[in-house]
Write the structure tokens for this entry.
Amino acid sequence: MSRLIYYISGGLFLCAALLIMGASSMGQSFHREVLLFEAYSSAAGSDLFLLDMQTRLLFNLTDNRATYESGFDWSADGKQIVYTASQNAQVGLYWMTASGRALQQIQTPLTTYRTPRWSPDGKFLAFLAPGAGNNDLYVLPTNGGALYRPFDTARAPVLLPRWSPQSDTILYFSVVGFSNGLFTVDITTGEVTRIARLRPADDVETGADWSPDGAYIAYNTHCDDVPGVMIYTLASQTEQCWTPPAGTWLRSRPVWSPDGQHIAIAISHGTRQLSIWQLDIASAQHATYPLTTGSGIIFEIVWSTDGTRLIFNSDLGTGRLRLYELNMINQTIEQLSERLVFAFALRP
Amino acid sequence: MSPNKWIWLLPIGALVSVAIVLQLPAIWQLPILLLLLVGFAGFFLWRPLQRIWQRWQHSQRELPSQPIKPLSRWQIILEIAFLGCVTLFFTQDLWRSDATMKLPGGEAEWLAAYVQVAHQALTEYGDIPLWNPYFRNGEPLIDNAHSFILNPLSSILGLLLDVPQGIKYSVVFYTFFAALGGWFLAYGLKLSLPARLLLGLMLLGKGNMTSMFMTGYYQLAAQQAYFGWIIAGTIAIFKTRERWAIILTGVMMALMFMAGNVWYILPMMVSVVITAIVYSLPFWRDWRAIWQAWWRLIAAGIVTLTVSAVYTLPILAHYDHIGNHNDEVEAGWEVVFLERVPALYVTPDMQSALGGFVVYQPAADAMEPSYPHFYYSAVVPVWFVVLIFVLIPPLYPRWHRPAARFDYRRLWLAGSLLAILMTMWGIGGTPLFEWLYANSGLLRGWRFVGRALAVASFWIALLVALRVDAIWRAFAAIVRLRLRYCLLSVLILLCLAAGISLNQNAWESAYRDQVIPYNKGLLLDEETKIPPCLQQLREQNPNANLNVWVNGYSQIETFIRQRIRLANIAADFLLLPDSYTIGDPAMDLWRNMPEYALPVDDAQRQFLEERGYDPSLESQVGRWQCFYRHTTIGMPYAFALPKPVFSQHNAWEALRPFVMPVHAVENKYDTIGVLVSAHLREQVLIVKETAYPGWQVTVNDVPATLEIMGGFISVVLPPGNHDEVYRVVFAYRPPLVYLGGGITILAIMIICGYLLRVDKRLLGHNRL
């Protein structure tokens, strides 16, 4: 009898150990880096994919060839995804869990949606929809509140909206006529503030990013006719310009590192030799990571959560747009996907 | 007052009329002067001509024509089988050869490539596209004046068997079809056995057709196969009230339209009209019947226009897009010396015919023909002509009279007139045609006048056949029975000997002089290096949209198989894009050279080096340096540019730094899908396909406005966010092709109903 008790207790102990290990593993899995991207396998459709950055396992979230899924964003807790899907010129707004379940269409009076953006606090969903100015900004409270427009965008179509980390302001560009510039809009009061005007310079890829603490905005511009990245301090409304090596052009929007100490941006020497330029704000040190010897394109860069790697989509001069990871410590580049990828986002 | 009193007023009136006519535009002068001349001649010569006509008719009635027995079914089958066997025998070098043997010359590759592209697309996608992306910057595959895909007789074997085999079999088929057309014409005219067979054999081996087939002018040769059918149909319209006559004439003319060249349409229209006029004579005898016959001929014209609408409607509508097609000057920049003209038709051996053949090029002050194959017009051996026209004619009044028939007078008149007219056209430099070319813009488009000799030789063949028939009937009518069979047998043997001799010389010499040298690489040795070079380039760039310059257009077959665009087809025909809607019209990107070039001689290498090309070291086949490369001149297949840059720059070199490559994810000949990341500024997406009327574009499934930049199809994309992707689909869907296709299908249905006499049955049913 005692031996039986001994075996049962031993078995229970073993089960408990396994359960604890399993739970620990699941917890680890949840905190792993997961990349969401939109990939085109053919012209017959695009799908959303999840890529486990550790195991490199790929999971198709929307295996549907008849529709084009695009314009997606993570919720702040990384458990939900909002995206648009189009079929026959109709574009719907959907959300689903990160596992691909609970697909649901978000119903609003609108019929077409672009670029949905979840606020960092998860309380709002901002998106663009064609209106009088082609790109009107709409905000939808996720608690069931009414859809509204923070301001009249009829004469100033909104582009590249990005929530501030505090979820109270949206940074956006507008490029039409006198409304040309980089702006912020308070989603509560609708107050619009111009941060900068844009120059009609074609050798600067326009883009902007909030610092992780929301105190700064980095955007591309010219500093004394030289392409550079401007750091705008919201509190003091002051600017500081950083210029990459002479003779280079800016090829992507600037992106802040998770710790807010660095900025990364793609540059090229004229039309040749694509590189990523990394700037240390505090020490003014910078480093350049060459990507190609010839010409190439790069669309988007994001930092890894630990700040040691950069994930980007580029053709690396081959003409085929793919997803890559640059390890800045050992300076190696690894291809992450064989598919054609235009947009991607790391889980928060 | 007697009318003769005022006769002196006539010459004054004539002079005044001529003076007035000379003040008219030149294009009206000749016809009006001719009318005046005919009027005056008729006034003075009416009575004498009427007396001559009556006497001649009286003489014809003295001895009636021999009754003509209808042919039995087996006789028809045997005669057609005989022509088929002769065709197979003389074309055996074509149908017995394997795929390594091609028809010679760049023309063959270029002109046959339309069916190759269609075959390739059919194999890949199961349908025939409307756009051919492999020539220059792309051009229509169907609504193209050189395309013959819609003519099933020209294309079906090529579509099924690909090139070169399918085209070679088509050549065999067309030669038989030409012979059958000749036989059918003779059969319709109720000519005798030797005349039927001889006409079939003469059209089978007609020098113009064999030489054009064997030098690669597939379309021009194929068109000649319809001559016999069209004239047979025209004559049948005037001799019978059968429905098939209208349909035969109309459909054969339509098929000739759609055989891929416009050249023989005009001379055949002239031939049809003159044939119709002579068959209307004397038009005062039974004018109601003649009037009805002309209406039937007009109905045949309507059949032609409607059946060929799918082809002709878009081509005529976009006629102004045909470029690089300079007008002919003064009816022939090559002029044949008059004393050489008779020999053109009676010298079957190509080497003999063209070896001592002399033309003069006034512009170049040279004495050799640039395109001798256009002048090779052998249609009958000289000994046969001497025999039937020189030796037998002394007996003509007695022997020929019994055989005189309704068709002879008319066909001799039409045939002689047209043979002379077409010869005058073909030899170049004759005053009548110089005048016509000088005063008719449309006619100046009919270049290389030597091609008209093919029509002349057809009519000469018919005249020879008529002559043989007359002799046959004369023998049959008046010679004593025992001698008759002997003479008739001799005549048959002579006719067969003439026909076989013509074919033997025409096919063998064309094959020997053209096909063998080309395929043995004696003529174009360096061009044989092109295929391995293209294969290597494709292997090095398996997924790229490649575009290569070569000087000329040989080896097009390999370009298409490797899916490489041939940037430069140095032919005198190209389809131009629509005018610009974006950018500076002076920026002619459409004619820019591509990144890769493949020179085959030192002159071409120098030409490329002068334009900044360098030898590409990674492209060698053995010791052969394949490609020259220009790293900055080449444009990507699809790219985007910020729209504001067009207001600042107007040259490719200046625009190039702003190019944003895009991704063409679907390139299905006439449907091109492109994915473009949105840009903060308005951008212009450009795809390197010729902006020919008929392209449509959608952006994210919504129709958008097609723009034209640099001669290429483009679309303006609105500003957007980087993570947004525009799905742009360009599709070539020419509305006139669909409209014409609808008309063609409707016409074919009506024709079927007409031939099946559905209208009669319906009317009959209604009566019940």
About this structure: DSSP finds one helix and 28 strands in chain A. The interface with chain B takes residues 38, 40, 42-43, 46, 68, 70-72, 86-89, 91, 114-115, 128, 134-135, 157, 159-161, 173, 175, 200, 202-203, 206-207, 253, 270-271, 297, 299-300, 315, 319-321, 340, 342-343 of chain A (CB under 8 Å).
